[in-house]
Amino acid sequence: MRLSLSENTNIQELRNFAEWLLKIGDGLAGDTTDGESIVHIPSDILVKNSETALDDLIDFVYPDMLSNLSVENYFKDRAILAPTLDCVTDVNNKMTAELPGQERAYLSSDSMCTKEENMEFELDAFSPEILINGINCLGLPPHKLVLKVSAPVMLLWNIDQTNGL
Q: Could you give the percent of the chain with pLDDT greater than 70?
């Protein structure tokens, strides 16, 4: 991977690449035209536009994934950065589909506790779609979370520190 250090790593090239990534993240890279920027991506890191682009990207970042599922740092040492949560969902769904085993879906709670005096109003005003089913935002899991045995899961909060979660 381009950001890994080895004996043959050119430190200046690595530093330039890191600065370029930071400029992109800060919105400073590229030529600004009418509020939009055109960023030129080096050809050696460009995923060619094809029908298998996502498969090619996953294979590049996670080579031989199925035989490395039990390797402790395999997933910790790699990442695919995505511009939107929809792209993250596509990558996660694609990678989960490649894992062996049967999928299991977990649904979020989509009801609310209501007081009796406001029950009819609250039930009409806050349907399940409004509460969470249609929300896809940072920090919340999707309404339907599909997992398989051996699928890596990243916890964003310390849920139960005494048990290692």
A: 75
Cα(73)–Cα(16) distance, integer angstroms: 27
SS percent in the chain: helix, strand, coil, step 5: 40, 10, 50
Contact by Cβ (8 Å): 54, 90: yes
The pTM for the full model equals 0.63
Q: What is the 8-class DSSP label of residue 159?
A: S
10-25 per-position pLDDT tens digit: 788 888 888 888 888 7
Torsion of CA 139, 143, 149, 151, to 10 degrees: -40
Round the CA-based radius of gyration of the chain to a whole number and report it.
21
> Which residue has tokens 């690595």?
14
CB < 8 Å & 24+ apart, contacts of 67-75: 69/99, 69/150, 70/150, 75/152
